[in-house]
Design brief:
The protein has strands at residues 3-9, 13-19, 27-34, 59-60, 66-72, 75-81, 106-109, 115-121, 124-130, 141-142, 148-159, 162-171, 174-184, 195-198, 220-223, 229-235, 257-262. The chain is mainly β. The chain has a domain at 145-269.
């Protein structure tokens, strides 16, 4: 079994390490990105963009391949490794030039090699899909629920062509941040149907105010083998809270309780 670990060694470089013994030992396989000089010549003299919060990490593709987005300047390139992470060449378009793709914050790849790109733009989370290795992309579709006016932190999960995103968001109708889960059962459909729901009761936001930086990325999402989407969030500790994670912190808007929930589809859907 082959394991990979990517180390965000800020600020100099991001490296990929490989283990062939179940994780007991690790060796450096390659450098993904670097600064101030980039690891990819296609970036010229512009350093590659990476930090503790970005989503530019390798994604498993078919036949042992690995995909990663390379961001530098105003360009987002698509790279693929076919040598177990030893190198990350940027793919070429039909004219033989470096392959640039739409802005991508999170990339997912299914077992057939279809690519799913999600990008935050204003108050929208935009989904694009490619069925030809990144050469062509669908028109962007907004994943956010109706009424959302601002998006805080978010994360994406994909299983087959099903895709789910969990996100903290504001609406005009409520104060604080609500925890949302949006899913489509087939992102590759010509007109995919999206289901969205807030996991917290109305009037009881997941978080009051602006989350502290050390906690604002503690959310998650996954899709169970039966296709059920699940999401997890940190929460404020309200007065009188019985949440075990809030013990001794009742009434603290900066405390981190925890909650998980799922989106239940109507019967027959």
């Amino acid at each position: 079994m082959l394991f990979y670990w990517v180390a965000p060694d800020v600020p100099a470089y991001r490296a990929c390490y490989r283990s062939l013994d179940g994780g007991r030992s690790w060796t450096k396989a390659s450098t993904l990105f670097s600064r101030p000089l980039p690891a990819h010549s296609e970036c010229g003299t512009t350093e590659e963009t990476f930090n503790a919060d970005d989503g530019n990490y390798p994604e498993r593709g078919p036949a042992g391949s690995l995909y990663v987005t390379v961001a530098c300047g105003s360009n987002t390139f698509l790279a693929r490794s076919t040598d177990e992470g030893a190198s990350w060449p940027i793919l070429r378009n039909r004219r033989g030039a470096p392959l640039t793709i739409p802005p991508t914050d999170e990339l997912r790849v299914d077992n057939s090699g279809n690519l799913y790109s999600v990008h935050e733009q204003g108050a929208q989370l935009l989904l694009r899909v490619s069925g030809d290795g990144g050469l062509d992309w669908s028109a962007p579709l907004d994943l956010t629920a109706p009424g959302v006016t601002a998006v805080n932190e978010w994360y994406v999960a994909q299983r087959g062509s099903e895709l789910a995103v969990s996100y903290l968001a504001n609406t005009r109708a409520a104060s604080g941040l609500d925890g949302y889960l949006t899913v489509t059962k087939d992102a590759r459909a010509s007109n995919p149907l999206f289901w969205s729901a807030a996991l917290n009761p109305p009037g009881h936001p997941m978080f009051d105010g602006t989350p502290p930086q050390a906690r604002d990325d503690f959310i998650g999402v996954d899709i169970a083998p039966d296709g059920t989407p699940w999401a997890s969030f940190f929460t404020s500790c309200s007065p009188g809270s019985t949440n075990a994670g809030c013990a001794g912190q009742q009434g603290n808007p900066q405390a981190s309780g925890a909650v998980a929930g799922r989106l239940a589809f109507p019967p027959g859907t």
